[in-house]
Amino acid sequence: IFALIWDILYPICTNSVYSNANFDQLYKSLFIYNDEYFFEKSNEIKNKYLDITQRSLYDRLKFSTNTYDANVLYRDDPVDEIILDDNGQIIKQNATIFMLTRNWELPGVLHSMRSLEDRFNKNYHYDWVFLNDVPFDTQFIESTTAMASGDVYHGVIPTEHWDYPEGNDKTSLNISLSIMEEQGMVYGGSLSYRNMCRFNSGFFFRHELLQKYDYYFRVEPDVEYFCDFPYDPFKVMHDKDYKYGFVISTYEYEETIPSLWEAVEEYIEVYQDEFGIDNNKNMYDFITNKDTSRSWGVSVVSSSDYNLCHFWSNFEIGNLNFFRSEAYLKYFELLDSKMGFYSERWGDAPVHTIAASILLNKEEIIHFDEIGYQHLPFKTCPVSYYLRIKQKCQCDFDDKLNIDIQPNSCLPKYWIHGNGKTFVKE
Ligand code: GDP
Ligand code: MN
Prior knowledge:
Layout: H1 2-14, H2 20-31, H3 36-60, E1 95-100, H4 106-119, E2 127-132, H5 138-147, E3 152-156, H6 170-182, H7 191-202, E4 215-218, E5 224-225, H8 233-239, E6 244-246, E7 249-251, H9 260-271, H10 284-288, E8 309-311, E9 316-319, H11 320-323, H12 326-337, H13 340-343, H14 348-359, E10 365-367, E11 373-375, E12 378-380, H15 385-390, H16 411-417
Parallel strand pairs: 1-2, 1-4, 2-3, 6-10
Antiparallel strand pairs: 4-9, 5-11, 6-9, 7-8, 11-12
Helix pairs in contact: 1-3, 2-3, 4-5, 7-14, 9-12
Bound molecules: guanosine-5'-diphosphate (GDP) and manganese (II) ion.
């Protein structure tokens, strides 16, 4: 019977059509026999399969001189390691999970919490901090407290950190909002969305509830984490002194930030020496390189030197002290003085990304590529088959929504101009 199954499956799986689905099925069906011969054979197929997926990936990574081996865990960070202190307590970092949200988003908030608790936090019990521009209601407070495995704090944002800054013309604000609304810009006419982007750009790290922490993990309603976390990302941040971590990188809508780059250029000019901005050490090239031949092939063209690449900030793990630094505070102050959060619709994602790319060294930014994640309309799923199995992932690398293999992903640029990726060859 083995031979029979083999005869049927082998040609299917060694021929040109390799999909994750049929491979996964095949591998499982062979694996359950636990037979040496089949184990060996299935390994043979597996290697062929990996060879092909890797080669196509490799073809797309034409710039890389290394081979990419999805078969191995390529980072030397600890895997599945929960570290206990002498008293048997889990070692934790000075960190919190953080969500800015609204009362009516409660179902989505609980969904995200359940997912992150199951995949990561149930082992660590990190605190959750919830912030809102109006007070949270009783149901919100009770349900989120029940869902969390750590301590939970709910706070209100001071109006001066949220509202349209006083002393500015409200008539011109309303005119720009209605123009952007008419242009069909996403959230074009929304004032609250702008307050939110400005708050996330310049104020969240100043809130009193976040003062005691060094690290935050930003979460939004209705997101999903597809895989068990292979490590405590806060510990990785701490041990390797990373300042900013992301999972997805894509292009910003240029119409939301027409004059952002001008403000950034002014900042660089004024503060380059004071803050030691060094384009040989930072990721300036990541956000300015426009060479499309070395990417999946997208042709998103911007009219400034900024190429529109940004880390998607709905997932963020960061060092709060970076945002509290003089260099970042001055950066936000200069940007805020241009009023672009309102006269345009500057997002906190490009604002954070540009700051991280000019003020940090490459080595201080990490791509958490073992973390499966979804915030619609995009998702990301680890490329390594073994890793997906090991981390019990409920996602597929070949998924249409996987941004990492889409033309509008900025990952290829990050691999070239960022900290790079460790490509391991056996
Ligand atoms: P999108 O992801 O860009 O489509 O924007 P979201 O609507 O998801 O908003 C981003 C984050 O800010 C989410 O966590 C929202 O819950 C939160 N948010 C957006 N607008 C407001 C607001 O007016 N008040 C509060 N308290 N939170 C907001
Ligand atoms: Mn969102």
